[in-house]
């Protein structure tokens, strides 16, 4: 790549990063998802976050310098109804007035064979930070994009999500399965 | 199965009143749920509401199968238009007992909430989670239920009219405790 192109691209990337609209590698937000499944009264309940930002620089050939960062706007939660979304924003759950954003920052990545990777990182939620490992499988879609998909479990009570009457895990299970799907355009 | 004259079988009568009772419970519960603040108890009640609905669906299927093998007794003497109105009301009641639980199930799927019958049998999601579809299906589910309420009012009103005004056996032959018929309808 010619230096001038490279310069323009990095400028564009910087501008995009500054505006928060996209990331270094430009995760295709519209095709990507952060979803979750919780169990309420033994019933799977699906949800997702409508708004989040990604800062991903993922290079399978150079995992040591790869990184992934996410900022999730917790108030953008999508649940069964507006009532349950309003409930999720309240202090017993996410307390979005005090803790509007959940963050994930990778601390290390490793390949575990084939197209499978493990992304270790820190998840910060409601003022509590915990180490998590996110297993990902990488594949290519027809457009040549890299699609990373994986799921991991979050124990909601470790982050004080769902306190008081909601701490009852018979009502809402402790384990919440987070499913992510990230679509990354071909490397430049 | 024993019959009195050409009346309904005990099974048909039992299924009728059981369905009626469950519809009443499911309807009342559904109506009260929309005003309740979300709590673990509310989530439990939503579960019961869905279980009742699925049970009504299964009962309606069982009743149709039973009715097919044990035809309903011939109608008592009444004007032709009334006989037709009764047949139409009964057909619609069966349709609603099938369609309303289905609409609730699809509605639940559209909100992203699985239905697990009696907490034991997970039912498949009929549609993927979709907010716009969920709002539309909520209106459909509620409207169908108010239409059912109107139909049940007509159904019960007609039965009472037959009993107290026409003084015939229409209501009597569906009663669970088998009172002696007013007129012996056995040929």
Mind explaining what this structure looks like?
The complex is a heterodimer of chains A (188) and B (187). Chain A is mostly beta strands. Chain A has a single domain, classed as Lipid/polyisoprenoid-binding, YceI-like (Lipocalin), CATH 2.40.128. Chain A has helices at residues 3-19, 82-89; strands at residues 33-40, 43-49, 52-57, 67-73, 77-78, 101-111, 116-125, 128-140, 146-155, 175-184. Chain A has a ten-stranded antiparallel beta sheet with strand order 3-4-6-7-8-9-10-1-2-5, with helices on one face. Chain B is mainly alpha-helical and 187 residues long. Chain B has one domain. Chain B is 65% helix and 3% strand. Chain B has helices spanning 10-33, 40-69, 80-110, 131-166; strands at 115-117, 121-123. In chain B, strand 1 (115-117) and strand 2 (121-123) form a beta hairpin. The model of chain B has no long low-confidence stretch (mean pLDDT 91). Chain A binds chain B through residues 40-47, 78-81, 83-84, 87, 165-166, 168, 170-172, and chain B through 38-40, 43-44, 46-47, 111-116, 119, 122, 129, 131, 134.
Which short descriptors sum up this protein?
heterodimer; A: 188 residues; mainly beta; Lipocalin; 10 strands; B: 187 residues; mainly alpha; 2 strands
Assign an overall shape of chain B: elongated
SSE series of chain B = HHHEEH
Q: Tell me the count of domains of chain A.
A: 1
Distance between the termini of chain A: 9 Å
Query: Which percent band covers the strand fraction of chain A?
Result: 35-45%
Strand order of the largest sheet of chain A: 3-4-6-7-8-9-10-1-2-5
Helix-strand pattern of chain A: HEEEEEHEEEEE
Biggest sheet features of chain A: 10 strands, antiparallel
Amount of helix of chain A: 10-25%
How is the main sheet of chain B built?
2 strands, antiparallel
Uncertain segments of chain A are 14-23
> What proportion strand of chain B?
under 5%
CATH topology name of chain A, in short, is Lipocalin
- Main sheet: strand order of chain B: 1-2
Structural class of chain A: mainly beta
User: Would you identify the regions of chain B where 5 or more consecutive residues have pLDDT less than 50?
Assistant: none
**Record field, number of beta strands of chain A:** 10
Distance N to C terminus of chain B: 19 Å
The overall average pLDDT of chain A, rounded, is 88
């Amino acid at each position: 790549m010619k230096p001038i192109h490279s310069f323009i691209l990095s400028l564009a990337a910087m501008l995009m990063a500054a505006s928060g609209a996209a990331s270094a590698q430009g995760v295709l937000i519209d095709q990507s998802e952060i979803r979750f499944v919780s169990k309420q009264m033994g019933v799977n309940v699906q949800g997702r976050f409508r708004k989040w930002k990604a800062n991903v620089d993922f290079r399978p050939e150079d995992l040591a310098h790869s990184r992934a960062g996410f900022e999730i706007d917790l108030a953008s939660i999508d649940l069964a109804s507006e009532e349950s979304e309003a409930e999720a924003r309240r202090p017993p759950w996410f307390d979005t007035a005090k803790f509007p954003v959940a963050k994930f920052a990778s601390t290390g990545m490793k390949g575990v064979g084939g197209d499978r990777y493990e992304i270790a990182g820190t998840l910060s939620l409601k003022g509590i930070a915990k180490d998590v490992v996110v297993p990902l499988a990488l594949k290519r879609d027809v457009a040549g994009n890299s699609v990373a998909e994986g799921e991991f479990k979050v124990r909601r009570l470790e982050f004080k999500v769902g306190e008081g009457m909601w701490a009852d895990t018979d009502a809402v299970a402790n384990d919440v399965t987070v499913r992510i799907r990230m679509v990354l355009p071909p490397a430049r | 199965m024993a019959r009195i004259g050409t009346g309904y079988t005990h099974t048909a009568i039992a299924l009728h009143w059981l369905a009626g009772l469950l519809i009443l419970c499911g309807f009342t519960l559904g109506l009260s749920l929309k005003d309740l603040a979300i709590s673990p108890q509310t989530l439990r009640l939503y579960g019961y509401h869905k279980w009742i609905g699925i049970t009504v669906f299964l009962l309606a299927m069982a009743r149709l199968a039973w009715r097919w093998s044990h035809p309903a007794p011939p109608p008592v003497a009444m004007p032709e238009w009334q006989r037709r109105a009764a047949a139409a009301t009964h057909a619609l009641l069966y349709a609603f007992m099938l369609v309303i639980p289905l609409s609730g199930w699809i509605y639940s799927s559209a909100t992203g909430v699985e239905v697990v019958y009696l907490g034991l049998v997970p039912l498949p999601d009929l549609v993927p989670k979709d907010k716009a579809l969920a709002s539309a299906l909520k209106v459909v589910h509620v409207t169908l239920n108010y239409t059912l309420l109107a139909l049940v009012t007509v159904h019960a009103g007609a039965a009472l009219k037959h009993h107290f005004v026409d003084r015939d056996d229409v209501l009597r032959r569906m009663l669970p405790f088998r009172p002696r018929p007013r007129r012996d309808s056995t040929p």
